[in-house]
Amino acid sequence: MTRPHTSHLSLDVTVAAPPEAVFAALTQWAEQGQWMLGTTVSVTRGDGVSVGSEISAWTGLGRIGFWDTMVITRWEPPFRVDVLHTGSVVRGTGSMEVLALPGRRSRFLWSEDLVIPLGALGVIGWPVVRPVFRAGVLASLRAFARLVETGTLPSAPVSLKG
After folding, report:
1. In sequence order, what are the residues at sequence separation of 6 or more whose Cβ sits closer than 8 angstroms to the Cβ of residue 153?
2. DSSP reduced 3-state for 65
3. pTM of the model
């Protein structure tokens, strides 16, 4: 059996807010569509704030897109949440970390280790798709930082249940 081809992506953004606010904002799953390009997210099982909770994200335009289903595998508020991507298109692991910085600022680190879909076709096409994917995630992280810094997110207090 051959091992699947994978790709690692790690991006970060500095947010002028303390870790608790950044973590609360990033784990408001239903609000993720405000900052993640072309994505609508919902909790489909569990409370969304604990290991084992399941999340589904529709990524696309209108009816053209795909489901990215995930299971929370690590929950360490206000610093880290890890997910396992379980969908048919997006598979692999993801991690969202919040690091405290001086001056009530935070570093939000988004990293993914994804299995490249579509077999050989995906491996051939990934060098073309990867820069676009990376640019989209980076633009989304910058939008997230703006929403947190302006107080738009988090939109309501979120339990940081451990």
Report:
1. 25, 28, 31, 34, 35, 144, 147
2. strand
3. 0.91
